[in-house]
Amino acid sequence: MLKKMARNRSLRRTTLKIFIFLIFLIILFACAPLPSITHATSQFHLDKGYVHKFEIAEDMFWKDGEPFRIIGGDLHYFRVHPEYWKDRLLRAKALGLNTIQTYVPWNLHEPRQGHLVFEGIADLISFLKLCKELDLLVMLRPGPYICGEWDLGGFPAWLLAKEPAIRLRSADPAFLELVEKWWGILLPKVSPLLYSNGGPITMVQIENEFGSYGDDQAYLQYLVKLARTHLGEDIILYTTDGGSRQTLEKGTIRGDAVFSAVDFTTGDDPWPIFELQKEFNAPGKSPPLSAEFYTGWLTHWGENIASTDATFTANNLEKILSKNGSAVLYMVHGGTNYGFYSGANTGDGESDYKPDLTSYDYDAPIRESGDVDNTKYEAIRTVIGKYSARPLAAVPANKEKIAYGHIKLDEISFLFDMIGMKGLVDVVESQNPISMEAIGQMFGFVLYASEYTPKGNESVLSIPKVHDRAQVFISCPEDSGKRPTYVDVITRQSNRPIYLPHIKCASKNNLFILVENMGRLNYGSYIFDRKVNIQKLASSRYLVLPPSHNNLHTQVCTHFKKKCVMSGVLKDNFVNFYYKVMKLVVLSVMWTPKVMTFCKYVNIVRVEFMKGFPF
After folding, report:
1. What are the beta bridge partners of residue 488?
2. Is 602 helix (H, G, I), strand (E, B) or coil?
3. What's the sign of the alpha-carbon dihedral 225, 171, 517, 161?
4. Which of 155, 374, 587, 607 is the residue whose CA sits 20 to 30 A from 253?
5. 3-state secondary structure of 109
6. Which residue in the list 209, 318, 368, 516 is annotated as catalytic?
7. CA-CA distance, 232 to 381, in Å (whole number)?
8. Dihedral pair phi/psi, residue 475, rounded to 5°
9. What is the pLDDT of residues 192-219, one digit of tens each?
10. Cα–Cα distance between 450 and 513 in angstroms, integer?
């Protein structure tokens, strides 16, 4: 009996142990992740635990292991005063954006070869850190070509002074050597700000719409290799090309090394284009992305200000977002082409020249002034709000506007007073007219001074090519105390001959041609746009006077007999100087057939040219 009772107790203990073990197994399986269709069909989600990882799989973007839709916008740091960077970014975020796309213009950061500028409005690193602070991702477009209605498409003008002439946007070894030096400076600066390093940069673009320009795979492959050298293998490299087979064939890099994005006219059906996009990406590596969804358009001088309908724009954006597509608004905020940095386009030929406005408002939802109380901002925000993964931030109020009143320029001098003045710098004497770039005058004006022997009562002046606008003046050498007489203007668009009136001089007549650079071409086959290109006009030698900062300063100091000290900032760092004094100076450049007024640098110079104006 006792043995039987002992066996029963042992059985109960064993049963209890088995029961406890079964309970443990039930708890274990209950806590373990259950298999799902997603896990069964993809190993990608095994990366979910990784932090700071942005990648492409299953035709989607993934951020830290979670599906991610890019709702972005172009906002260029170099078109906004640094004091307003945060304000404009907050307005973009309130619109519902999670990503900012920006170009990097080489000419802003290296205006002269070897002279680097990364301060003030060129402080790219501070801008990127601010995006990170505001929880905005960044798609970086470092070129080296950017287009963007920016002078020479972002290339520094000193590239045009190289001899023999280099071939831009090509595998020309001379060009690639200079690109390698530039990217060797730029890319190490931004590398610590890649998303994998804890920064905001998720994608880096190679070139820009190259398929609309050329077909040089060696050039594109070189840029990819160079980018990988500095940025590593984890960053997503991408190209952007128009949504046609022809442009994608020439501008993309097949395989999975570079992601191919597209852009197309607002109003086009996006989904057939996204299907075409898949052919140029590896399987599973083609999330639908419109890298430039146009919210407006650019405007050239002489055109009506471009505008697009708000409802039309918002409805077409919804066509993309409603099917889980991604889009980057070009532009979300246009800003301003400060200084002389606005570019130009051509139509059917090189002479069909169309310079861009100083304003780059672009009819974007955030206006040039920063205002957002407009129907386009509201319509786009409503659409984005339907598809945003998080609630939209409150919209900041418009900034108060202040009238600064009149600014009086007490010290005024005239351009032609500079002729014959002692102490001028950068003056060049040449047998033939030479380009602006060849004398180191990258922007603004160049004055060509020569002489001619009049023929009869009227001499004819013909300039086969002028880049871009030449104002012609004449005088007698013995009338050195008088200002030259204005004759006429020759433009790039017309290139018509003009008649030089007869004036009685003791010897030959003086000829002055003031050539204005209205902006280098930023797009198309004529991009190698040297200024001034007026060719040889007479048998005499030419005195080339660039109205440079140094000469204008010398001129004003001499005119007013003052002791002047040339500021190192003014002499060596135009960008930094310009943006520091903007609170005190009015910069106004107006181009009309009759009047051109150029006000620049507070208390330095004001020059006016007008037909019949008494110089």
Report:
1. 472
2. coil
3. positive
4. 155
5. helix
6. 209
7. 36
8. -165, 170
9. 999 999 999 999 999 999 999 999 999 9
10. 9
Number of other CB atoms surrounding residue 44 within 10 Å = 17
In this structure, what are the phi and psi dihedrals at residue 65, rounded to the nearest 5 degrees?
A: 85, 0
Q: How many angstroms separate the CA atoms of 30 and 7, rounded?
A: 34
The per-residue pLDDT for range 217-274, each reduced to its tens digit, is 999 999 999 999 999 999 999 999 999 999 999 999 988 899 999 999 999 999 999 9
Strand 509-516 to 469-475 pairing? antiparallel
The dihedral region occupied by 334, where left means phi > 0, alpha psi between -120 and 50, and beta the remainder, is alpha
Rounded to an integer, what distance in angstroms lies between the CA atom of residue 336 and that of residue 369? 9
- 586 touches 578 (CB < 8 A): no
Straight-line distance from the first to the last Cα atom of the chain, in angstroms, rounded to the nearest whole number = 135
User: Of 300, 304, 297, which Cα lies nearest the Cα of 356?
Assistant: 300
**How far, in Å, are 199, 333, 396, 593 from residue 372 at the CA level?**
28, 10, 8, 35
Which positions ≥6 away from 18 have C-beta within 8 Å? none
- Length of the chain, please? 615
Active site residue 209: yes
Check the CA dihedral 84-86-92-94 and report its sign: negative
Q: Say how far apart CA 154 and CA 136 lie, in whole Å.
A: 25
pTM over 0.70: yes
Q: Which two tokens stand for residue 350?
A: 């090189």
Euclidean distance between CA atoms 300 and 355, whole angstroms: 5
- For the chain, count helices (H), then strands (E): 14, 24
Q: Decide: 181 and 457 in contact? Cβ < 8 Å.
A: no
State the sign of the Cα–Cα–Cα–Cα dihedral 111, 117, 122, 128: positive
Q: Which are the contacts of 338, defined by CB distance < 8 A and separation ≥ 6?
A: 78, 79, 121, 358, 578, 579, 587
* Pair of tokens at residue 550: 């140094």
Q: What percent of the chain lies above the pLDDT cut of 70?
A: 79
Q: For 362-376, 443-457, 521-535, which range has the lowest pLDDT when averaged over its residues?
A: 521-535
Quick one: CA torsion of 294, 299, 304, 310, rounded to 10 degrees? 20
Nearest to 141 by CA among 88, 82, 81, 186: 186
> Which residues, in sequence order, are CB contacts of 364 under 8 Å at separation 6+?
295, 296, 329, 331, 332, 333, 334, 376
Of 110, 292, 368, 516, which one is the catalytic site residue?
292
Q: Is 124 left (phi over 0), alpha (psi -120 to 50) or beta?
A: alpha
The answer to whether 463 and 535 have CB atoms below 8 angstroms apart is: yes
DSSP 607: E
Count of beta carbons in the 10 Å neighbourhood of residue 45 = 16
Whether the CB-CB separation of 395 and 372 falls below 8 Å is answered with: yes
CB-CB neighbours of 589 under 10 Å: 16
Is 458 considered catalytic here? no
Residues ≥6 apart with Cβ < 8 Å to 38 = 45
Q: Write the DSSP string, 92-105.
A: HHHHT--EEEEE--
CA distance 417 to 605: 12
Residue 281 three-state SS: coil
